[in-house]
Amino acid sequence: MFDLLTDKLGEAFRSIRGRGKITDENVREAMRRIRTALLEADVQIQVVRDFSDRCLEKALGADVIKTLHPEQVIVKIVYDELVALMGPVDSRIPYVSPGPTIILMAGLQGSGKTTTCGKLARRIMAEGKKPLLVAADLQRPAAIDQLEILGQQLNVPVYTERDNQNPVRVCRNAVEHARKQGLDVVILDTAGRLAIDDALMDEIGKVAQTVSPHQVYLVTDAMTGQDAVTSAKAFNERLELDGVILTKFDSDTRGGAALSIKTVTGKPIKFIGVGEKLDAIEPFHPERIASRILGMGDIVTLVEKAQEQFDADAAAKAQEKMAKGKFDFNDFLDQLQAMRKMGPIKEILKLIPGVGSALKDLQIDENELNRVRGIIHSMTARERKGPDLIDASRRRRIAKGAGVDPQDVSGLVKQFSQMRDMMKEMSKMGLRQRMGLAGQLGKMGMMGGKLPQLKAPVAPNPAMEHRRKEQRRKDRKKHRR
User: Fold this and answer.
1) Is 354 exposed, middle or buried (0-12, 13-18, 19+ CB in 10 A)?
2) What CATH number is attached to the domain comprising 173?
3) Residue 212 needs a FRET pair 20 to 30 A away by CA distance; which of 58, 162, 308, 353 works?
Protein backbone atom coordinates (compact mmCIF):
# COMPACT_ATOMS: atom_id res chain seq x y z
CA MET A 1 0.00 0.00 0.00
CA PHE A 2 1.13 3.55 -0.80
CA ASP A 3 4.42 2.48 -2.45
CA LEU A 4 3.96 4.86 -5.37
CA LEU A 5 2.89 7.75 -3.13
CA THR A 6 5.81 7.15 -0.76
CA ASP A 7 8.31 7.28 -3.63
CA LYS A 8 6.82 10.46 -5.08
CA LEU A 9 6.68 12.25 -1.74
CA GLY A 10 10.26 11.21 -1.10
CA GLU A 11 11.28 12.89 -4.36
CA ALA A 12 9.43 16.06 -3.30
CA PHE A 13 11.22 16.20 0.04
CA ARG A 14 14.59 15.53 -1.55
CA SER A 15 14.06 18.51 -3.86
CA ILE A 16 14.52 20.89 -0.92
CA ARG A 17 17.19 18.89 0.87
CA GLY A 18 20.32 20.88 1.57
CA ARG A 19 18.60 24.26 1.33
CA GLY A 20 19.66 26.64 4.04
CA LYS A 21 16.22 28.00 4.74
CA ILE A 22 12.59 27.75 3.72
CA THR A 23 11.80 30.17 0.91
CA ASP A 24 8.62 30.87 -0.97
CA GLU A 25 10.12 29.42 -4.14
CA ASN A 26 11.40 26.07 -2.81
CA VAL A 27 8.26 25.50 -0.74
CA ARG A 28 6.00 26.06 -3.71
CA GLU A 29 8.12 23.71 -5.82
CA ALA A 30 7.92 21.00 -3.16
CA MET A 31 4.15 21.45 -2.84
CA ARG A 32 3.70 21.16 -6.61
CA ARG A 33 5.44 17.79 -6.45
CA ILE A 34 3.34 16.72 -3.47
CA ARG A 35 0.13 17.76 -5.23
CA THR A 36 1.12 15.75 -8.32
CA ALA A 37 1.95 12.74 -6.13
CA LEU A 38 -1.48 12.83 -4.48
CA LEU A 39 -3.29 13.12 -7.81
CA GLU A 40 -1.31 10.18 -9.21
CA ALA A 41 -2.31 8.25 -6.08
CA ASP A 42 -5.97 8.75 -7.14
CA VAL A 43 -6.84 11.09 -4.28
CA GLN A 44 -10.01 13.09 -4.94
CA ILE A 45 -9.09 16.38 -6.61
CA GLN A 46 -10.84 18.71 -4.13
CA VAL A 47 -9.18 16.86 -1.26
CA VAL A 48 -5.81 17.40 -2.95
CA ARG A 49 -6.45 21.13 -3.41
CA ASP A 50 -7.50 21.71 0.20
CA PHE A 51 -4.64 19.56 1.54
CA SER A 52 -2.04 21.40 -0.57
CA ASP A 53 -3.37 24.81 0.42
CA ARG A 54 -3.19 23.99 4.13
CA CYS A 55 0.34 22.58 3.84
CA LEU A 56 1.53 25.58 1.80
CA GLU A 57 0.05 28.06 4.27
CA LYS A 58 1.75 26.37 7.22
CA ALA A 59 5.07 25.89 5.41
CA LEU A 60 5.38 29.54 4.34
CA GLY A 61 4.79 30.66 7.89
CA ALA A 62 7.11 28.12 9.51
CA ASP A 63 10.38 28.98 11.21
CA VAL A 64 13.25 26.54 10.82
CA ILE A 65 14.50 25.56 14.25
CA LYS A 66 18.28 25.30 14.48
CA THR A 67 18.10 21.54 15.00
CA LEU A 68 15.96 21.02 11.88
CA HIS A 69 16.40 21.35 8.13
CA PRO A 70 13.76 22.72 5.72
CA GLU A 71 13.06 19.19 4.50
CA GLN A 72 12.28 18.01 8.05
CA VAL A 73 9.95 20.95 8.64
CA ILE A 74 7.97 20.14 5.47
CA VAL A 75 7.81 16.44 6.39
CA LYS A 76 6.38 17.33 9.80
CA ILE A 77 3.76 19.61 8.24
CA VAL A 78 2.71 16.98 5.68
CA TYR A 79 2.60 14.31 8.39
CA ASP A 80 0.29 16.42 10.60
CA GLU A 81 -2.01 17.19 7.67
CA LEU A 82 -2.17 13.53 6.61
CA VAL A 83 -3.20 12.56 10.13
CA ALA A 84 -5.87 15.28 10.14
CA LEU A 85 -7.04 14.17 6.68
CA MET A 86 -7.70 10.57 7.78
CA GLY A 87 -8.66 11.06 11.42
CA PRO A 88 -9.60 11.17 14.14
CA VAL A 89 -10.72 7.53 14.29
CA ASP A 90 -12.01 5.41 17.15
CA SER A 91 -11.67 1.85 15.87
CA ARG A 92 -13.39 0.31 18.90
CA ILE A 93 -16.80 -1.29 18.40
CA PRO A 94 -19.27 0.34 20.83
CA TYR A 95 -21.21 -2.53 22.42
CA VAL A 96 -24.62 -1.92 23.98
CA SER A 97 -25.90 -3.34 27.23
CA PRO A 98 -28.13 -5.24 27.36
CA GLY A 99 -27.29 -6.85 24.02
CA PRO A 100 -27.27 -7.81 21.37
CA THR A 101 -25.31 -5.14 19.52
CA ILE A 102 -26.54 -5.12 15.91
CA ILE A 103 -23.99 -4.45 13.14
CA LEU A 104 -25.26 -4.04 9.58
CA MET A 105 -22.68 -4.72 6.88
CA ALA A 106 -23.31 -3.08 3.49
CA GLY A 107 -21.37 -2.97 0.26
CA LEU A 108 -21.24 -3.80 -3.41
CA GLN A 109 -20.63 -7.29 -4.78
CA GLY A 110 -16.96 -8.20 -4.97
CA SER A 111 -15.91 -5.89 -2.16
CA GLY A 112 -15.22 -8.79 0.19
CA LYS A 113 -18.22 -8.13 2.43
CA THR A 114 -18.99 -11.72 3.44
CA THR A 115 -15.34 -12.52 4.24
CA THR A 116 -15.11 -9.30 6.21
CA CYS A 117 -18.12 -10.41 8.27
CA GLY A 118 -16.11 -13.48 9.24
CA LYS A 119 -13.03 -11.40 10.06
CA LEU A 120 -15.09 -9.05 12.21
CA ALA A 121 -16.69 -12.00 14.02
CA ARG A 122 -13.24 -13.38 14.82
CA ARG A 123 -12.13 -10.01 16.17
CA ILE A 124 -15.27 -9.72 18.30
CA MET A 125 -14.67 -13.19 19.72
CA ALA A 126 -11.13 -12.13 20.69
CA GLU A 127 -12.73 -9.34 22.77
CA GLY A 128 -14.71 -11.92 24.74
CA LYS A 129 -18.04 -11.45 22.98
CA LYS A 130 -20.31 -14.08 21.40
CA PRO A 131 -21.27 -13.11 17.82
CA LEU A 132 -23.96 -14.41 15.47
CA LEU A 133 -23.47 -14.29 11.70
CA VAL A 134 -26.68 -13.72 9.73
CA ALA A 135 -26.96 -14.80 6.09
CA ALA A 136 -29.17 -12.00 4.75
CA ASP A 137 -27.58 -11.88 1.29
CA LEU A 138 -30.30 -13.65 -0.70
CA GLN A 139 -29.22 -12.29 -4.08
CA ARG A 140 -25.78 -13.80 -4.66
CA PRO A 141 -25.63 -17.54 -5.33
CA ALA A 142 -23.71 -19.48 -2.66
CA ALA A 143 -23.52 -16.46 -0.32
CA ILE A 144 -25.25 -18.47 2.41
CA ASP A 145 -22.92 -21.43 1.86
CA GLN A 146 -19.88 -19.17 2.06
CA LEU A 147 -21.00 -17.67 5.36
CA GLU A 148 -21.73 -21.11 6.80
CA ILE A 149 -18.23 -22.28 5.88
CA LEU A 150 -16.75 -19.22 7.59
CA GLY A 151 -18.89 -19.93 10.66
CA GLN A 152 -17.58 -23.51 10.81
CA GLN A 153 -13.99 -22.33 10.55
CA LEU A 154 -14.51 -19.84 13.38
CA ASN A 155 -16.88 -21.99 15.42
CA VAL A 156 -19.42 -19.14 15.26
CA PRO A 157 -23.17 -19.80 14.86
CA VAL A 158 -24.72 -18.77 11.53
CA TYR A 159 -28.43 -17.91 11.25
CA THR A 160 -30.05 -18.91 7.94
CA GLU A 161 -33.56 -19.25 6.52
CA ARG A 162 -33.09 -20.91 3.14
CA ASP A 163 -36.81 -20.97 2.37
CA ASN A 164 -37.32 -17.31 3.21
CA GLN A 165 -36.54 -14.85 0.41
CA ASN A 166 -37.39 -11.76 2.44
CA PRO A 167 -34.13 -10.31 3.91
CA VAL A 168 -36.04 -7.98 6.24
CA ARG A 169 -37.79 -10.91 7.94
CA VAL A 170 -34.55 -12.91 8.08
CA CYS A 171 -32.74 -10.07 9.87
CA ARG A 172 -35.65 -9.43 12.27
CA ASN A 173 -35.90 -13.14 13.16
CA ALA A 174 -32.13 -13.38 13.57
CA VAL A 175 -32.10 -10.57 16.13
CA GLU A 176 -34.87 -12.30 18.12
CA HIS A 177 -32.91 -15.56 17.93
CA ALA A 178 -29.79 -13.82 19.27
CA ARG A 179 -31.73 -12.37 22.21
CA LYS A 180 -33.13 -15.79 23.15
CA GLN A 181 -29.70 -17.42 22.89
CA GLY A 182 -27.98 -14.72 24.94
CA LEU A 183 -25.59 -13.74 22.14
CA ASP A 184 -23.75 -10.42 22.35
CA VAL A 185 -23.40 -9.26 18.73
CA VAL A 186 -25.42 -9.78 15.54
CA ILE A 187 -23.57 -9.26 12.23
CA LEU A 188 -25.95 -8.86 9.28
CA ASP A 189 -24.42 -9.84 5.92
CA THR A 190 -26.76 -7.99 3.56
CA ALA A 191 -26.99 -8.27 -0.22
CA GLY A 192 -24.85 -6.31 -2.62
CA ARG A 193 -25.11 -5.42 -6.29
CA LEU A 194 -22.65 -4.93 -9.10
CA ALA A 195 -23.53 -1.23 -8.96
CA ILE A 196 -25.56 1.12 -6.76
CA ASP A 197 -29.25 1.03 -7.70
CA ASP A 198 -32.57 1.94 -6.11
CA ALA A 199 -33.51 -1.68 -5.43
CA LEU A 200 -30.34 -2.23 -3.40
CA MET A 201 -30.77 0.96 -1.41
CA ASP A 202 -34.48 0.31 -0.75
CA GLU A 203 -33.74 -3.21 0.52
CA ILE A 204 -30.95 -2.13 2.87
CA GLY A 205 -33.01 0.86 4.00
CA LYS A 206 -35.90 -1.42 5.00
CA VAL A 207 -33.56 -3.73 6.91
CA ALA A 208 -32.07 -0.78 8.78
CA GLN A 209 -35.52 0.65 9.55
CA THR A 210 -36.76 -2.70 10.88
CA VAL A 211 -33.85 -3.83 13.09
CA SER A 212 -32.39 -0.37 14.00
CA PRO A 213 -28.70 -1.38 13.85
CA HIS A 214 -26.35 0.18 16.38
CA GLN A 215 -23.52 0.31 13.84
CA VAL A 216 -23.61 0.43 10.02
CA TYR A 217 -20.33 -0.36 8.26
CA LEU A 218 -19.70 -0.04 4.54
CA VAL A 219 -17.27 -2.59 3.12
CA THR A 220 -15.51 -1.24 0.04
CA ASP A 221 -12.59 -2.33 -2.13
CA ALA A 222 -9.53 -0.09 -1.79
CA MET A 223 -8.36 -1.04 -5.27
CA THR A 224 -11.35 0.67 -6.90
CA GLY A 225 -9.94 4.08 -5.95
CA GLN A 226 -12.39 6.91 -6.54
CA ASP A 227 -15.21 4.42 -7.18
CA ALA A 228 -14.84 3.39 -3.54
CA VAL A 229 -15.23 7.02 -2.48
CA THR A 230 -18.27 7.50 -4.74
CA SER A 231 -20.02 4.39 -3.40
CA ALA A 232 -19.24 5.42 0.19
CA LYS A 233 -20.84 8.80 -0.42
CA ALA A 234 -23.96 7.20 -1.97
CA PHE A 235 -24.41 4.68 0.85
CA ASN A 236 -23.89 7.34 3.50
CA GLU A 237 -26.65 9.51 2.03
CA ARG A 238 -29.14 6.65 2.41
CA LEU A 239 -27.92 4.78 5.48
CA GLU A 240 -25.98 7.21 7.68
CA LEU A 241 -22.82 5.12 7.99
CA ASP A 242 -20.86 4.79 11.21
CA GLY A 243 -17.66 3.79 9.48
CA VAL A 244 -15.95 2.22 6.49
CA ILE A 245 -13.97 -1.00 6.21
CA LEU A 246 -11.42 -0.92 3.38
CA THR A 247 -10.60 -4.35 1.98
CA LYS A 248 -7.58 -5.37 -0.14
CA PHE A 249 -5.61 -2.63 1.57
CA ASP A 250 -2.42 -4.67 1.09
CA SER A 251 -2.92 -4.82 -2.70
CA ASP A 252 -3.50 -1.14 -3.50
CA THR A 253 -0.22 0.69 -4.21
CA ARG A 254 -1.87 4.10 -4.68
CA GLY A 255 -4.07 4.61 -1.63
CA GLY A 256 -6.37 7.33 -2.95
CA ALA A 257 -9.47 5.85 -1.31
CA ALA A 258 -7.89 5.80 2.14
CA LEU A 259 -6.95 9.47 1.84
CA SER A 260 -10.27 10.66 0.40
CA ILE A 261 -13.11 8.82 2.16
CA LYS A 262 -13.04 10.68 5.48
CA THR A 263 -13.11 14.12 3.84
CA VAL A 264 -15.74 13.28 1.22
CA THR A 265 -18.17 11.36 3.47
CA GLY A 266 -17.27 12.66 6.90
CA LYS A 267 -17.14 9.02 8.06
CA PRO A 268 -13.95 7.39 9.35
CA ILE A 269 -12.26 4.24 8.13
CA LYS A 270 -12.67 1.86 11.08
CA PHE A 271 -10.79 -1.22 9.85
CA ILE A 272 -8.60 -2.31 6.96
CA GLY A 273 -8.35 -5.76 5.39
CA VAL A 274 -4.70 -6.71 4.89
CA GLY A 275 -4.96 -10.23 3.50
CA GLU A 276 -7.20 -13.17 2.74
CA LYS A 277 -6.94 -14.99 6.08
CA LEU A 278 -9.58 -14.47 8.75
CA ASP A 279 -7.11 -12.77 11.09
CA ALA A 280 -6.04 -10.28 8.39
CA ILE A 281 -7.98 -7.27 9.63
CA GLU A 282 -6.51 -4.31 11.51
CA PRO A 283 -7.87 -1.19 13.20
CA PHE A 284 -7.23 1.92 11.14
CA HIS A 285 -4.75 4.27 12.82
CA PRO A 286 -4.19 7.55 10.89
CA GLU A 287 -0.89 8.25 12.70
CA ARG A 288 0.56 4.89 11.73
CA ILE A 289 -0.67 5.11 8.15
CA ALA A 290 0.81 8.59 7.80
CA SER A 291 4.14 7.25 9.06
CA ARG A 292 4.05 4.46 6.47
CA ILE A 293 3.19 6.89 3.67
CA LEU A 294 6.20 9.05 4.55
CA GLY A 295 8.53 6.03 4.74
CA MET A 296 8.95 6.40 8.50
CA GLY A 297 7.92 2.84 9.32
CA ASP A 298 5.34 1.72 11.85
CA ILE A 299 7.08 0.26 14.88
CA VAL A 300 3.87 0.15 16.98
CA THR A 301 2.10 -2.14 14.51
CA LEU A 302 5.26 -4.28 14.28
CA VAL A 303 5.32 -4.74 18.05
CA GLU A 304 1.60 -5.60 18.11
CA LYS A 305 2.07 -8.21 15.37
CA ALA A 306 4.99 -9.72 17.28
CA GLN A 307 2.99 -9.85 20.52
CA GLU A 308 0.19 -11.71 18.74
CA GLN A 309 2.48 -14.41 17.34
CA PHE A 310 5.33 -14.78 19.84
CA ASP A 311 4.65 -16.42 23.20
CA ALA A 312 6.34 -14.41 25.97
CA ASP A 313 7.43 -17.47 27.99
CA ALA A 314 8.76 -19.25 24.91
CA ALA A 315 10.65 -16.10 23.88
CA ALA A 316 12.21 -15.83 27.34
CA LYS A 317 13.35 -19.46 27.18
CA ALA A 318 14.78 -18.93 23.71
CA GLN A 319 16.68 -15.86 24.92
CA GLU A 320 18.09 -17.84 27.82
CA LYS A 321 19.25 -20.59 25.46
CA MET A 322 20.86 -17.97 23.20
CA ALA A 323 22.81 -16.59 26.15
CA LYS A 324 24.13 -20.08 26.92
CA GLY A 325 24.91 -20.87 23.29
CA LYS A 326 22.35 -23.70 23.27
CA PHE A 327 19.98 -22.22 20.69
CA ASP A 328 19.28 -25.07 18.23
CA PHE A 329 17.44 -25.66 14.97
CA ASN A 330 14.21 -26.52 16.82
CA ASP A 331 14.23 -23.05 18.40
CA PHE A 332 15.11 -21.43 15.10
CA LEU A 333 12.24 -23.24 13.36
CA ASP A 334 9.75 -22.06 16.01
CA GLN A 335 10.92 -18.45 15.59
CA LEU A 336 10.76 -18.76 11.80
CA GLN A 337 7.20 -20.10 11.82
CA ALA A 338 6.02 -17.38 14.22
CA MET A 339 7.58 -14.72 12.03
CA ARG A 340 5.91 -16.12 8.92
CA LYS A 341 2.53 -15.73 10.64
CA MET A 342 3.21 -12.01 11.02
CA GLY A 343 3.04 -11.61 7.23
CA PRO A 344 5.36 -11.35 4.21
CA ILE A 345 8.94 -10.69 5.29
CA LYS A 346 9.36 -7.60 3.09
CA GLU A 347 6.16 -6.05 4.46
CA ILE A 348 7.28 -6.71 8.03
CA LEU A 349 10.67 -5.12 7.37
CA LYS A 350 8.94 -2.04 5.95
CA LEU A 351 7.42 -1.40 9.38
CA ILE A 352 10.91 -0.84 10.81
CA PRO A 353 11.74 2.90 10.69
CA GLY A 354 14.36 3.70 8.06
CA VAL A 355 14.28 0.22 6.53
CA GLY A 356 11.30 0.39 4.15
CA SER A 357 12.83 2.86 1.69
CA ALA A 358 16.13 1.01 1.70
CA LEU A 359 14.40 -2.26 0.77
CA LYS A 360 12.03 -0.96 -1.90
CA ASP A 361 14.07 -2.53 -4.74
CA LEU A 362 15.10 -5.65 -2.83
CA GLN A 363 13.55 -8.87 -4.11
CA ILE A 364 12.88 -11.30 -1.27
CA ASP A 365 11.86 -14.79 -2.34
CA GLU A 366 9.48 -16.15 0.29
CA ASN A 367 10.01 -19.64 -1.17
CA GLU A 368 13.57 -19.59 0.16
CA LEU A 369 12.14 -19.73 3.67
CA ASN A 370 10.31 -22.89 2.67
CA ARG A 371 13.63 -24.35 1.52
CA VAL A 372 15.16 -23.54 4.91
CA ARG A 373 12.24 -25.23 6.64
CA GLY A 374 12.56 -28.22 4.32
CA ILE A 375 16.23 -28.63 5.21
CA ILE A 376 15.52 -28.45 8.95
CA HIS A 377 12.60 -30.89 8.68
CA SER A 378 14.91 -33.36 6.90
CA MET A 379 17.21 -33.45 9.93
CA THR A 380 16.86 -35.99 12.72
CA ALA A 381 15.94 -34.86 16.24
CA ARG A 382 19.60 -35.27 17.30
CA GLU A 383 20.84 -33.21 14.35
CA ARG A 384 18.46 -30.36 15.11
CA LYS A 385 19.64 -30.24 18.71
CA GLY A 386 23.33 -30.67 17.77
CA PRO A 387 24.13 -29.11 14.38
CA ASP A 388 27.82 -29.95 14.98
CA LEU A 389 26.94 -33.61 14.35
CA ILE A 390 26.15 -32.91 10.70
CA ASP A 391 29.11 -34.29 8.71
CA ALA A 392 29.45 -34.92 4.97
CA SER A 393 27.34 -38.09 4.87
CA ARG A 394 24.59 -36.50 6.96
CA ARG A 395 24.62 -33.44 4.70
CA ARG A 396 24.08 -35.64 1.67
CA ARG A 397 21.18 -37.44 3.35
CA ILE A 398 19.55 -34.18 4.51
CA ALA A 399 20.00 -32.60 1.07
CA LYS A 400 18.37 -35.59 -0.60
CA GLY A 401 15.40 -35.43 1.77
CA ALA A 402 14.96 -31.68 1.25
CA GLY A 403 15.55 -31.73 -2.50
CA VAL A 404 18.52 -29.32 -2.35
CA ASP A 405 22.27 -29.50 -2.94
CA PRO A 406 24.60 -30.60 -0.10
CA GLN A 407 26.34 -27.20 -0.24
CA ASP A 408 22.98 -25.57 0.61
CA VAL A 409 22.86 -27.63 3.78
CA SER A 410 26.48 -26.73 4.53
CA GLY A 411 25.74 -23.04 4.03
CA LEU A 412 22.74 -23.12 6.35
CA VAL A 413 24.57 -25.06 9.09
CA LYS A 414 27.61 -22.78 8.86
CA GLN A 415 25.57 -19.60 9.08
CA PHE A 416 23.43 -20.98 11.89
CA SER A 417 26.60 -21.75 13.89
CA GLN A 418 27.90 -18.23 13.26
CA MET A 419 24.55 -16.73 14.24
CA ARG A 420 24.41 -18.80 17.42
CA ASP A 421 27.91 -17.70 18.42
CA MET A 422 27.00 -14.08 17.74
CA MET A 423 23.84 -14.33 19.82
CA LYS A 424 25.85 -15.70 22.71
CA GLU A 425 28.31 -12.84 22.44
CA MET A 426 25.47 -10.30 22.20
CA SER A 427 24.13 -11.40 25.58
CA LYS A 428 27.41 -10.20 27.16
CA MET A 429 27.53 -6.83 25.40
CA GLY A 430 26.20 -3.36 26.03
CA LEU A 431 23.42 -1.81 23.93
CA ARG A 432 25.71 -0.04 21.44
CA GLN A 433 27.76 -3.17 20.81
CA ARG A 434 24.59 -5.25 20.40
CA MET A 435 23.24 -2.86 17.77
CA GLY A 436 26.43 -3.23 15.74
CA LEU A 437 26.41 -6.99 15.96
CA ALA A 438 22.72 -7.08 15.05
CA GLY A 439 23.69 -5.48 11.75
CA GLN A 440 26.07 -8.37 11.15
CA LEU A 441 23.24 -10.83 11.79
CA GLY A 442 21.06 -9.00 9.28
CA LYS A 443 23.77 -9.25 6.63
CA MET A 444 23.89 -13.01 7.06
CA GLY A 445 20.58 -13.07 5.17
CA MET A 446 19.01 -16.06 6.86
CA MET A 447 15.61 -14.51 6.30
CA GLY A 448 15.26 -14.88 2.58
CA GLY A 449 18.26 -14.63 0.28
CA LYS A 450 19.30 -17.50 -1.98
CA LEU A 451 20.86 -20.17 0.20
CA PRO A 452 24.14 -20.42 -1.72
CA GLN A 453 24.48 -16.62 -1.41
CA LEU A 454 24.00 -16.52 2.33
CA LYS A 455 27.73 -16.65 3.01
CA ALA A 456 28.15 -13.02 3.98
CA PRO A 457 31.45 -12.08 5.64
CA VAL A 458 31.33 -11.82 9.41
CA ALA A 459 33.48 -9.51 11.48
CA PRO A 460 36.36 -11.60 12.93
CA ASN A 461 36.35 -12.33 16.63
CA PRO A 462 39.87 -13.34 17.78
CA ALA A 463 38.73 -15.27 20.85
CA MET A 464 36.06 -17.15 18.88
CA GLU A 465 38.48 -17.93 16.04
CA HIS A 466 41.05 -19.25 18.53
CA ARG A 467 38.45 -21.59 20.07
CA ARG A 468 37.50 -22.89 16.62
CA LYS A 469 41.14 -23.59 15.73
CA GLU A 470 41.68 -25.41 19.01
CA GLN A 471 38.59 -27.53 18.43
CA ARG A 472 39.70 -28.41 14.88
CA ARG A 473 43.15 -29.36 16.19
CA LYS A 474 41.62 -31.65 18.82
CA ASP A 475 39.33 -33.24 16.23
CA ARG A 476 42.26 -33.99 13.91
CA LYS A 477 44.28 -35.46 16.78
CA LYS A 478 41.34 -37.63 17.81
CA HIS A 479 40.85 -38.77 14.19
CA ARG A 480 44.53 -39.82 13.88
CA ARG A 481 44.23 -41.93 17.01
Assistant:
1) exposed
2) 3.40.50.300
3) 162
